[in-house]
Write a structure and sequence with these properties.
- The protein has helices at about 5-10, 15-25, 35-45, 50-55, 65-90, 90-105, 110-130, 130-140, 155-190, 195-205, 220-235, 240-255, 255-260, 265-280, 285-295, 310-330, 330-345, 355-370, 375-385, 395-410, 415-430, 435-450, 455-470, 480-490, 495-500.
- It is globular.
- Among the domains are: about 5-90, no CATH class; about 90-150, no CATH class; about 160-260.
- The longest helix has about 35 residues, at about 155-190.
- The protein is mostly helical.
- Helix 2 (about 15-25) crosses helix 5 (about 65-90) and helix 21 (about 415-430) packs antiparallel against helix 22 (about 435-450).
């Protein structure tokens, strides 16, 4: 049997309260208004689409035999209503409206009225950074005359057109360069570039268009210029430079309120990056202020349930908050938020990638490790490892494997630890080999198998690890494990050491 289409259900689930209210008000007029509103409300109240239940509910209605036709009518009516609603509330739709109105008025001969509308629309196009529509408006301005060619300000119009063409050309150049840098970072990871990756990136950074900060003129080009420098600084591990470029991105969005609303997802992502940067700089008050801004900058009444922006604000924002608690040693607060985090993961499952889910489980594992709940920690790590594919988040997989070995020490499973140590060393050798820090980690775990009987050698190895980790940034990051080893050899608790390292 053919599965009933759920396109209307999916569309309804994206609506804000304001959009739903507007549709119900508009749908109240007309011959079959009551029927269509009833269908809309029945679908709106469902969590999972169940057409059979709706048909059963309206079984006594005469129109139920033509339910598919009625459902399609509601879908088309809703789309039309959303178009009208967005034209009133979204600047980019208003700009499209201007273009239609100008063409209609020109066809009717109202050239003087068009002059005023064209100027108003050009101002909005510049404000929104929409140069393609600005070009359309300049073309309309060029023919805004009964004779078909506008003799007024013809030279000025031509100069403006040339400026827009040049801007679009620069946009295309930045777009090409940005795509290259994005491909490099997504392939190699965003931190701790290898020499080979850094060589490739250095060639890009030497391009003339990236030498002058004043080169990009449009919002799009400026954003890409900033992102390219941000990727480069992050890959080289230059925390202060990375922070500088994130602040630049935030200021760019905030230079124009329209840009924040028009590019709300990009602005929200910038705030998440800024939060992470503040955490790295140990500026926790600013980090939490950034999360507060993330959760309040966009009107709640306009947030849609199944939408990328809602996912970032609800799920990603909480993920970052729990990360903050872990960094500060506030593990109990982190664990208190885990049920909400898991609920949000389920709610936004269609927006969540496998890579994010892997990070989700690792974050929870660290929280449980912090409160000494090693059984739950291991459970989350195993869930994470079960999800991992061969080439996905290899860094987190290695961190998880080391942390599980640590749990065997904590739970005094020393026989199992000796076996697992050999198995995991084979795994590391097969997957990129052991870096200098990982060699020392395995050496320390071997000391743990012998209950740190040779404490002097263990302390010496610990100091080697700490010095190496300070001098060089490693990916994967093993800061938590190093602190745990320090606790074992100094008698301090893991919690004490995390709190001390956060200052």
């Amino acid at each position: 049997m053919k599965k009933p289409s759920d396109h209307l259900f999916k569309l309804i689930k994206t609506l804000t309260k304001s959009e739903k209210r507007a549709f119900r008000l508009n749908a109240m007029s007309g011959k079959d208004a009551k029927k269509y509103v009833a269908i809309f409300d029945a679908i709106d109240h469902q969590e999972v689409y169940d057409e059979a239940a709706i048909k059963e509910k309206f079984a006594k209605e005469k129109w139920i035999g033509r339910f598919n036709a009625a459902k399609d009518y509601v879908y088309r009516a809703l789309l039309n209503d959303l178009a009208v609603y967005n034209q009133k509330h979204e600047p980019q739709y208003q700009l499209a409206d201007f273009l239609v109105h100008i063409r209609v008025l020109q066809s009717k001969g109202f050239y003087q009225r068009c002059t005023k509308l064209i100027e108003k629309a050009k101002s909005l196009a510049v404000e929104l950074g929409d140069h393609l529509k600005l070009l359309e408006l300049l073309n309309l301005e060029g023919v805004n005359h009964p004779g078909g060619i506008n003799p007024h300000h013809a030279e000025d119009i031509r100069v403006q057109q040339q400026a827009v063409f040049k801007m679009l050309e620069i946009d295309a150049e930045f777009d090409e360069v940005y795509k290259k840098t994005y491909q490099i970072t997504s392939r190699a990871g965003y931190t701790n570039f290898s020499k080979e990756v850094l060589t490739d990136f250095d060639k890009i950074m030497a391009l003339p268009i990236l030498k002058k900060e004043g080169m990009p003129a449009s919002f799009k080009a400026k954003r890409q210029y900033i992102n390219i420098h941000y990727f480069y600084a992050q890959g080289k591990g230059l925390d202060q430079d990375t922070h500088h470029w994130i602040i630049k991105a935030k200021n760019l969005f905030e230079s124009n309120p329209h840009l924040i609303i028009q590019h709300a997802v990009n602005y929200a992502t910038t705030l998440l990056n800024l939060h992470s940067s503040f955490l790295g700089l140990k500026k926790y008050d600013q980090a939490f202020d950034t999360l507060s801004l993330l959760r309040t900058f966009y009107p709640k009444s306009q947030l849609k349930t199944h939408e990328r922006l809602t996912y970032i604000i609800e799920y990603a924002g909480l993920h970052h908050e729990i990360t903050s608690y872990n960094k500060m040693g506030e593990f109990n607060r982190a664990v208190e938020e885990i049920p909400v985090l898991e609920s949000n993961l389920k709610k936004h499952e269609q927006e969540v990638s496998l890579s994010i889910t892997i990070r989700h489980y690792y974050l929870m594992a660290l929280s449980y490790f912090g409160i000494g709940s090693f059984k739950l920690c291991k459970e989350k790590l195993n869930q994470m490892l079960d999800l991992s594919t061969v080439d996905l988040r290899e860094d987190l997989k290695k961190q998880a494997k080391i942390l599980i070995l640590v749990i065997w020490v904590e739970t005094k499973k020393f026989d199992l630890l000796e076996y697992e140590l050999r198995a995991e060393q084979r795994y590391f050798h097969k997957n990129g080999g052991l870096n200098e820090l990982e060699k020392l980690l395995f050496k320390m775990l071997n000391f743990a198998c012998n209950h740190f009987s040779d404490k002097e050698k263990a302390v010496h190895t610990l100091n080697e690890m700490k010095a190496l980790n300070t001098l060089q940034k490693f990916n994967p990051n093993y800061n938590e494990v190093i602190l745990w080893f320090e606790g074992k050899l100094t008698g301090k608790t893991y919690l004490e050491l995390v709190k001390a390292s956060s200052i």
